[in-house]
Design a protein that fits this description.
The chain is an alpha/beta fold and 138 residues long. Helix content is 38%, strand content 15%. It has five helices and five strands, in the order βαβαβαβαβα. Strands 2-1-3-4-5 form a five-stranded parallel β-sheet, sandwiched between helices. Strand 1, helix 1 and strand 2 form a beta-alpha-beta unit. The two termini are 16 Å apart.
Length: 138
């Protein structure tokens, strides 16, 4: 049996609500038939002594992934998530942004133009995520 393609799931993880949300995103990706890399699940708990290890694990997770799905909710995109999107774009990964936040930031953009123009797809609901995943090239 062929190995499931890997999806790196990016997003802020600073409170229970953010972790609940990113785990909800990950669940939709997994239910669509993909293997997932979820930074807070697939790394050891962060300490002062292991931040370089976590950075390397996350970077390597993006390198191994075929697709990156990034939660872009919030008044501004989380800085770590923005880095992950930029790195994934530079590596030629298929990028899907998830933005369910109804607040408007810019008159003609959903998120910052540098992030938005890096995306292959932008979905406004978790219900739309499976179709965006299915549209990714094999």
């Amino acid at each position: 049996m062929a190995e499931k393609p890997l999806v790196y799931v990016a997003g802020p993880l600073f409170d229970e609500g953010e972790r609940w949300w990113i785990e909800s995103v990950e669940r939709v990706v997994a239910e669509a038939g993909f293997a997932t890399f979820l930074p807070h699940r697939d790394n050891p708990p962060k300490t002062a002594d292991n931040v370089a290890e976590i950075f390397a694990n996350d970077r390597d997770g993006i390198d191994r992934a075929r697709i990156v799905v990034a939660s872009l909710n919030g008044v501004t995109t989380d800085d770590g998530t923005a880095w992950e999107v930029g790195y994934a774009y530079a590596k030629g990964k298929y990028l899907i942004g998830v933005h369910t936040d109804w607040r408007s930031r810019f008159p003609n953009e959903v998120v910052n133009l540098m992030i938005e123009c890096s995306l292959d797809a932008l979905v406004r609901s978790l219900d739309d995520l499976p179709a965006a995943l299915a549209a990714a090239p094999a």
